Amino acid sequence: xxxxxxxxxxxxxxxxxxxxxxxxxxxxxxxxxxxxxxxxxxxxxxxxxxxxxxxxxxxxxxxxxxxxxxxxxxxxxxxxxxxxxxxxxxxxxxxxxxxxxxxxxxxxxxxxxxxxxxxxxxxxxxxxxxxxxxxxxxxxxxxxxxxxxxxxxxxxxxxxxxxxxxxxxxxxxxxxxxxxxxxxxxxxxxxxxxxxxxxxxxxxxxxxxxxxxxxxxxxxxxxxxxxxxxxxxxxxxxxxxxxxxxxxxxxxxxxxxxxxxxxxxxxxxxxxxxxxxxxxxxxxxxxxxxxxxxxxxxxxxxxxxxxxxxxxxxxxxxxxxxxxxxxxxxxxxxxxxxxxxxxxxxxxxxxxxxxxxxxxxxxxxxxxxxxxxxxxxxxxxxxxxxxxxxxxxxxxxxxxxxxxxxxxxxxxxxxxxxxxxxxxxxxxxx
Amino acid sequence: xxxxxxxxxxxxxxxxxxxxxxxxxxxxxxxxxxxxxxxxxxxxxxxxxxxxxxxxxxxxxxxxxxxxxxxxxxxxxxxxxxxxxxxxxxxxxxxxxxxxxxxxxxxxxxxxxxxxxxxxxxxxxxxxxxxxxxxxxxxxxxxxxxxxxxxxxxxxxxxxxxxxxxxxxxxxxxxxxxxxxxxxxxxxxxxxxxxxxxxxxxxxxxxxxxxxxxxxxxxxxxxxxxxxxxxxxxxxxxxxxxxxxxxxxxxxxxxxxxxxxxxxxxxxxxxxxxxxxxxxxxxxxxxxxxxxxxxxxxxxxxxxxxxxxxxxxxxxxxxxxxxxxxxxxxxxxxxxxxxxxxxxxxxxxxxxxxxxxxxxxxxxxxxxxxxxxxxxxxxxxxxxxxxxxxxxxxxxxxxxxxxxxxxxxxxxxxxxxxxxxxxxxxxxxx
Lengths: 430, 430
What we know:
Number of helices of chain A: 12
Oligomer: homodimer
CATH class of the largest domain in chain A: Alpha Beta
CATH superfamily of the largest domain in chain A: FAD/NAD(P)-binding domain
Strand order of the largest sheet of chain A: 3-2-1-7-18
Number of strands of chain A: 25
Mean pLDDT of chain A: 97
CATH architecture of the largest domain in chain A: 3-Layer(bba) Sandwich
Helix content of chain A: 25-40%
Shape of chain A: globular
Largest interface: A-B, 63 and 63 residues
Largest sheet of chain A: 5 strands, parallel
Low-confidence stretches of chain A: none
Strand content of chain A: 25-35%
Number of domains of chain A: 3
């Protein structure tokens, strides 16, 4: 069997690896438009900040790994056409037969309509080439503006501060991390960032970038503008070929498109929202690798399903961890879902130990079924995963309010903050 | 209504608080045999180690708090008898009427049959008086032996090392933390402790304590012996009064004993094992406070149930966190449950970030239902809680192997170690 993968990012590369783990014999080939192997895009801001020593470190799979895994890699070639009838992928002057095809075409950066957006002082931050340009410029500049207060925008702003560069973030919406957080929680992050030297202007649209950045409210001087306003699914090829798309490429639970023997995974694919059942994008590395695994199972003759997502995400900015899973208030409102909330502000450990702040917010429906959780503080990794499991199991805040958890003074509180927040939400049920 | 609580530890005190939160008017009275208010016993080893400044810090509720909550407190009085017919509690020359009675009589230290166990150089470590004695002695001694490699034993050994005291742990069973860990996982902890200066002799019984500690294998010189060999439920009063007991006081889901209007909670109470349905003790602070809440709901006319337990527990020793929830191999074997396991040894973060080791072991039944999890590493708090939720929801390792989780390079790996361990277990299902 010959498996051709269009796209060599996290999704495409992981699909290749997962297939190889299950199938020693098939030919596996990745065709990547970019001229480089897979790297960790999530790590880019941390190279900029100096937390990671260089960009090469982000390329965790070396050439030998591909050779050892017998994964063919064609770099710098763009697939122009695919003949589904004859099962042929076309790039440059080459035609290549496939038995199974995987579209892992990823995403591109969304660029808001701003005058002067093609100016030299602007970098749209999406891939490692962009990151390298920012890295280069960082050595010479004093003031930067970041457009977009999403994860990457804030992580990039953090990197500027770490390089002693004055930075301002401009966000069109009314809060930072607008996809992850409700306004009350976002306000806490905003203040934390302010304390660390990141100014952010919210509810503000950038209109023009000339000598200065002109928003609908003010002008901001700067030497560099980084645009980080989210990503969109790369569906050009799919659309051209008549593959069904919506926000992204449509796939079934087996990661199959509507065309026989054509699969898709990663940023280019549309997911289903666990809470609402509606289509939603989930352009996370974790989603890509989980989809790749499901796809590999199905391609190699086993059975697996990719389920609806909660878009569980996390970051750390200046030592403060910020996590989110499931529904946030804004989306609940849009979907017409009435929610009740519970918010607990407390500490990570008993008062006699050295400890940090932790703030947990829980969203539940009117019956108490937990729908979402946002946490800001310390030691969040497992906590976000616990909240994710609670939502996926459709647990009730009443039940969670008195559920079992672990405690020891050096690591946690006698009362778990997640469940105290559930308790507060549960009280509103009565 | 008059509510009398026998016992002023975590369980009794929490019961009082939770009842008061729900009932402003009833009279609430705690009768405590000890001459002091509630403190955090879990914090004691960390006062000894110097992580907590003094013992007073462990008493997180001050006198004013009891006054403000209108919780009466009688200290240093032992309840000798209770007349269930006339609903009277008797102590010294006093008889006191109750409407509802709560037994929170706690536990006592188990002392193994050792010759010379009443010697001056021995301290049985259970309560704060014992801790203070150890604290006092620590200033003068050079060599200590701890009998028992459970949580408190190892935490005490840690405290000795922090005070530059040579320490040896002697454990009768074949591993450290025998209630929490399987042998392979315990071995990792043992080595870690060795590197930090704690010697431990396993499979070794202490026979006699004289000038030296004599085990069935060797003699060990020392200036102080701390016995920390587990606790047993304090059921003397209950038994004397004809209340049903087994390992501990028997209660139903509402925390009621077999006697009308008599409840019980905390270390003196027997629980049900979630996995096997058999009676099990759960002498954890978290169990006590969760039971207190259920009890308070029921006493104040609401409905709540206390469910079966997993005995989720955790500690940190020299920066290494150790957690456990649910079934361990030894108990599975005793119960005749065949288990399959998955063990993942990896890192907490991507290779380009500063990171620590993490080792996850998963136990599942032959259908793949997760039954237990042991983790050693960093950032375990939420992870243990996630594993606890997975078990309580009877999730399958096959499902967990590809479940959603959070990832960002500064805080976690692209692949979550918990679920990688589940994946390894799931592969054994095929």
